[in-house]
Specification:
Helix content: 40-55%
CATH architecture of the largest domain: 3-Layer(aba) Sandwich
Shape: globular
Number of strands: 34
Strand content: 15-25%
CATH class of the largest domain: Alpha Beta
Strand order of the largest sheet: 22-23-21-24-25-20-26
Distance between the termini: 58 Å
Structural class: alpha/beta
Mean pLDDT: 91
Largest sheet: 7 strands, parallel
Number of domains: 7
Number of helices: 44
Radius of gyration: 31 Å
CATH topology of the largest domain: Rossmann fold
């Protein structure tokens, strides 16, 4: 009989089959270590059988159900597989021997089934009767409150088919009760999407077993913003395409928008201190967004000032009369609490929440600064009413026992009826949820914009309907249509492909990807993943306790103690965006109540410091008696920047669009007179002269250690500001790189320093550069005029690209002559293309042979197939703008528009030679010996190490230690971890180094997996905590941009399949991950890995051959 899989998969299955006897023996011997190997066996087998198809599974349930359909698995086998996936996610003390044996039996069944072979009789000893795995049969319900199901897309006469998760993929038929939800399902069916999850609520089950839910939520784990949904609700109809239209247009700063910010600031402040003076609040409100205020004309400022007085008086009135007199104590109010509501598929930040648990009373308040337009029967705008109803559903689920739940709108502009009651109407709530589904379906549609014809855009997304709307909506739709019609076919294709690519990345940031492919986990992992899985990914801290509460300060901080935290290691770093929450105790419909979104600003072995998005009132503050959980968050503003960039590109001139798409090259320029700078190489002087002479754009390729920042950018700052009298904007991808640019600015002395401004948060900026911070320097001013005058005296603005987007209105106040963007090869093209379209000259600096930006979608999703776009050099949307344009300029001989640095001063010659040959075609060289401090690059290793160290360390720059492989794709390697620690122990002890004096720049360890990082860290801390604190153990992605004298590379290679994770090859086959790893080492490189597996890759084979191979016996002290 023929196999159900192709020959390649069959071979992989046969290789996997070789491990079955060992696993079975381990289970019989009750070896606890075999359980971890069995879990890895399961993951590898499932991933292998899913194959290369670009499918994302929100849950493990969906993945197993997919295999059931693809390979026609029996109901018995499916049940066993589902039972085993639940077994793996339970704590060890909750699982018995029969669950593990049944799981092993199911995996053997699956493997032999896919080979189309009969399961050998010898495996019967592991067979466990299904009845022993099943729960006691439950009485069939006639009503089910809520259940998530997998929609199959099949329609019968009775309704739609779906699979139940809790019943081992058993099929049910359900029917929508209202026309709105029926239309949602029909539209979903037209999209032909697979693996779509539905949340069914308030389900009645008839005598024939047909389910009839009152509410249907499509992809509930893709949580959408409440405000975005509500903006699509009109009085008598809905316009879900409004949400998309707003994405297609660049944001505007208007007097109405800024007035709304002022009103919200007044509410926040007056709730905390009702007696606050208007004049004080008005001045303070300027600092909400001083740049945007400075761009508004005087008449708009006068308008805001006049309306602000009304806001102040009306808000103060309701606090004193409606709140205090009616008995609402202010400490029961929460200002701008944030919520994730996966059971409703929504998220949001409420303006004001009153909750008095003792009275079981909760009140929702939404603040509006504008006038009431076309009010409904409750004298409320339809969109405002929809917003309060969505929040009502969130709060109702969070606090189901609160008997007094009500919602209100505060119209701050209205002296009469300032507060208006928004009654809870179930029909309207359900209708609003159907609007949420339509917005979600639009999000699904824009992920496929690269598959439609350009002239179909308006009809495909129902944007043409908006052209008939009056007011701002109709104007915006006409504006977008006008811009769209001015584009030619290639420009439209460029926009659609870029937009689809970004939309897929946005989807992936929201929705968890169960597949174990290291492509990242979406926000929904917070509530979908079990604790055990999160601990295996090192993405959670639990049992945190509040140590110090500074949440009410202007810079709101929370200090959390890790004393009782069971996770000693987790993959959190300074600067990470995180979410803090207490697990829900009173509600079974949501995993947590209010959440606190924050940035991690400090972490050590004892405590974690978080900077909150905004300060909290007394009622808002976290309860010190509770245990708290910390997990990674997703910052949606990053994706808003992507969409803003594409909107800016759309609105740029035809000439700029043509330039940045690559349809025309930069104009050649005559070289300016230039006096070579003493101390620089001939190459560096040539590059600087070409850059200052360039027009449109210039691309500088700078391999590792070639002085991109310390030499070229430093000299450009002086040349452009002092000699050319320019205003310059200096951007980079990371705060670390921006701090290095600030170092370059300050190296010119106080006069240059006085011309500089650093945009960003003080928590992301090095302490030594806090004096440059924009917000800090603003503190001394009292008026718009003073701020504008101060800005006009500045010549140098430094920022991350992300922070600049937050203050991009600066372009209306400052004419930037040149923008320089470092780390440009790490920034995706859609993120930059709109931004650079607004500048006269842009300098992009990067190295496309190092790691690119992280992309979470599959390679074939981002691949370009359109011939016209391929002619522009577009091959993969995952490429950077820098890389694409560099290849175009190279192909067209535009030497005036690019150059390359080829002399480095970081790596010793012995390391550089290999890197140069493998990754830079032999063109990367060490600095000439006449350059100061370059002697080290050609020196002996004995000059670096003291004489008492073992000879194998003192005499070999590149060392390879062969380590045994486990045979399964495990993400830890005990032997490698031991070897790494022993090497460090040898270096530290034999060198007689005092641990407290150990330089953090001496040793670094790079690993591909977080589990291996945690294992090595644990062993280091067990040996010597002080030494462990001085050594960074991290992934190569985290190490990019850094360097150490000695790099230990623990490759953790246990199985050939892991080479796919280990290698990041560009289209020429250059392994960019390996390039970055090797070029972190200044003096010595020590590689730990399995020789046999690694040698199957030509680059690793050559690397091993280029190293001195030693036995692990030499490592022991």
């Amino acid at each position: 009989m023929s196999s159900l899989v192709d020959e390649n998969k069959k071979y992989e299955l046969e290789e996997l089959q070789k491990h079955i006897p060992t696993l079975g023996k381990g289970l019989n011997n009750r070896d606890d270590n075999v359980k971890g190997k069995l879990v890895q066996f399961y993951y590898y087998l499932v991933e292998l059988l899913i194959g290369d198809e670009p499918l994302r599974f929100t849950t493990e349930f969906a993945a197993i159900s997919y295999l059931g359909v693809k390979y026609n698995l029996s109901g018995d086998l499916l049940f066993r597989l589902h039972a085993f996936r639940k077994t793996m996610n339970k704590a060890d003390n909750e699982v018995g021997e029969i669950e593990w044996k049944s799981g092993f039996y199911a995996l053997c069944q699956l493997l032999f089934h896919c080979k189309n072979e009969t399961l050998p009789a010898e495996f019967q000893e592991f067979h466990v009767a299904i009845q022993k795995l099943k729960k006691q049969p439950e009485k069939k319900d006639k009503y089910i409150r809520i259940e998530k199901v997998l929609w199959t897309g099949k329609k019968t006469e009775q309704g739609w088919e779906a699979l139940r998760e809790d019943e081992g993929s058993s099929a049910i038929i359900f029917e929508a009760l209202t026309d709105d939800f029926k239309k949602n399902l029909e539209e979903l069916s037209q999209l032909r999407s697979a693996n779509v999850l539905l949340m069914l609520k308030e389900i009645s089950v008839d005598t024939n077993g047909i389910w009839r839910p009152k509410v249907i939520i499509i992809e509930p784990d893709f949580i959408l913003d409440v405000t975005a949904i509500a903006s699509c609700v009109m009085n008598d109809y809905e316009l879900p395409s409004i949400h998309l239209l707003k994405k297609f247009l660049p944001p505007k700063t208007t007097k109405y928008l800024m007035g709304g910010h002022v009103a919200n600031y007044f509410l926040d402040s007056l709730i905390s201190e009702p007696s606050s003076r208007f004049e004080d609040l008005m001045r303070q409100s300027f600092f909400i967004d001083p740049v945007s205020f400075c761009t508004l004309p005087d008449e708009d400022i006068k308008y805001i000032a006049s309306k602000s007085r009304d806001y102040y008086l009306n808000i103060q009135k309701i606090i004193k009369r409606n709140f205090l007199i009616e008995g609402r104590e202010l400490h029961h109010f929460s200002v701008e609490p944030s919520f994730y509501s996966p059971q409703n598929g929504i998220q949001g930040r409420l303006d004001l929440l009153y909750r008095n648990p003792s009275e079981r009373r909760t009140e929702i308040f939404e603040l509006k600064s504008g006038s009431v337009f076309k009010p409904n029967a409750y004298n409320i705008n339809a969109s405002h009413y929809a917003q309060t109803m969505l929040y009502y559903m969130i709060i109702k689920d969070l606090y189901p026992n609160d008997i007094n739940l009500s919602a209100y709108i505060i119209y701050a502009k209205e002296a009469r009826e300032t507060v208006r009651y928004a009654p809870s109407v179930k029909h309207f709530q359900n209708k609003t949820m159907s609007v949420r589904n339509r917005v979600l379906l639009n999000e699904m549609k824009i992920q496929d914009l690269d598959k439609i014809k350009p002239d179909q855009l308006f009809s495909y997304l129902d944007l043409d309907i908006l052209l008939d709307e009056k007011g701002f909506t109709g104007q915006d739709a006409a504006n977008f249509k006008g811009r769209w019609e001015h584009l030619d076919e290639v420009e439209k294709k460029y926009f659609l492909h870029s937009y689809a690519f970004v939309s897929r990345e946005y989807r992936n940031s929201k929705v968890n990807n169960w597949r174990k492919t290291d492509r990242g986990n979406g926000l929904s992992a917070i509530w979908l993943e079990d604790l055990k899985s999160k601990e295996e990914r090192f993405s959670i801290y639990t049992e945190l306790r509040l140590k110090e509460d500074l949440s009410g300060e202007e810079n709101p901080l929370l200090i959390l103690s890790k004393k009782n935290c069971p996770q000693k290691l987790a993959n959190f770093r300074k600067g990470d965006v995180v979410v803090l929450y207490a697990p829900a105790l009173s509600s079974d419909s949501t995993p947590f109540a209010q959440i606190y979104r924050a940035t991690l600003v400090e972490i050590d072995g004892e405590k974690i410091s978080l900077r909150l998005r905004s300060k909290l009132s007394r009622s808002d503050a976290p309860d010190a008696t509770l245990s708290w959980v910390l997990e990674p968050d997703v910052l949606e503003s990053g994706f808003n920047h992507f969409f803003r960039s594409l909107a800016m590109f759309l609105n740029s001139s035809a000439e700029r669009r043509s330039l940045w798409m690559g349809r025309r090259l930069p104009d050649p320029a005559k070289l300016k007179d230039f006096n070579p700078i003493s101390g620089l190489t001939e190459e560096q002087n040539r590059v600087i002269q070409k850059i200052i002479s360039s027009k449109d754009y210039f691309l500088l390729w700078g391999p590792p250690g070639t002085g991109k920042t310390s030499v070229v950018i430093k000299q450009l700052i002086r040349q452009l500001v002092v000699e050319e009298k320019e205003n310059i904007l200096l951007l980079a991808y990371t705060n670390r790189a921006v701090d290095e640019i600030c170092d370059a600015v300050k190296s010119w002395g106080e006069k240059m320093n006085a011309l500089a401004v650093r945009i960003g948060s003080r928590y992301g900026v090095g302490v030594e550069h806090h004096d440059l911070l924009f917000d800090k320097q603003l503190e001394k001013f009292n008026s718009r005029r003073e701020v504008v005058e101060w800005l006009n005296k500045k010549k140098i603005f430094v920022s991350t690209v992300s922070s600049y987007y937050g203050k991009s209105e600066l372009r209306k106040l400052i004419k930037f002559d040149t923008v320089i963007i470092d780390e440009a090869s790490q920034i995706l093209e859609p993120y930059l293309v709109g931004l650079v379209s607004g500048f006269n000259r842009t300098i992009l600096i990067g190295d496309h042979c190092q790691l690119p930006a992280i992309v979470t979608q599959y390679e074939n999703e981002s691949k370009i197939n359109d011939i016209q776009l391929k002619d522009l050099g577009m091959e993969q949307l995952s490429d950077s703008l820098f890389e694409r344009l560099f290849r175009l300029c190279l192909r067209n001989g535009a030497d005036h528009a690019f150059d390359k640095l080829s002399y480095q001063g970081r790596m010793h010659r012995d390391i550089c030679d290999f890197v140069s040959h493998q990754f830079y075609k032999g063109k990367l060289q060490c600095l000439n010996s006449d350059i100061p401090n370059s002697e080290r690059l050609r020196g002996d290793l004995s000059d670096f190490y003291p004489a008492q160290l073992p000879n194998f360390l003192r005499s070999n720059r590149k060392i390879f230690l062969d380590q045994a492989a486990e045979g399964l794709p495990l993400k830890t390697h005990e032997e490698e971890a031991e070897s790494a620690v022993q090497l460090i122990k040898t270096i530290v002890e034999k060198s007689a180094l005092k641990p407290e004096n150990l330089s953090e720049n001496l040793i670094g360890i790079i690993c591909p997996y977080r589990a291996q990082i945690a294992l090595i860290k644990s062993k280091l801390e067990n040996w010597h905590p002080v030494v462990a604190s001085k050594i960074t153990v991290d992934t190569v992605e985290r190490y990019q941009g850094g360097a150490r004298d000695i790099i230990i590379l623990s490759l953790c290679i246990n199985h050939p399949s892991q080479l796919n994770t280990l290698i990041n090859a560009n289209r020429e086959g250059l392994d960019r991950k390996l390039n970055v790893a090797l070029t972190r080492a200044r003096e010595q490189l020590i590689i730990l890995g399995n020789k046999e597996i690694l040698s199957s890759n030509p680059t690793y084979q050559q690397l091993i051959e280029n190293c001195t191979e030693i036995s692990s016996d030499f490592v022991t002290v």
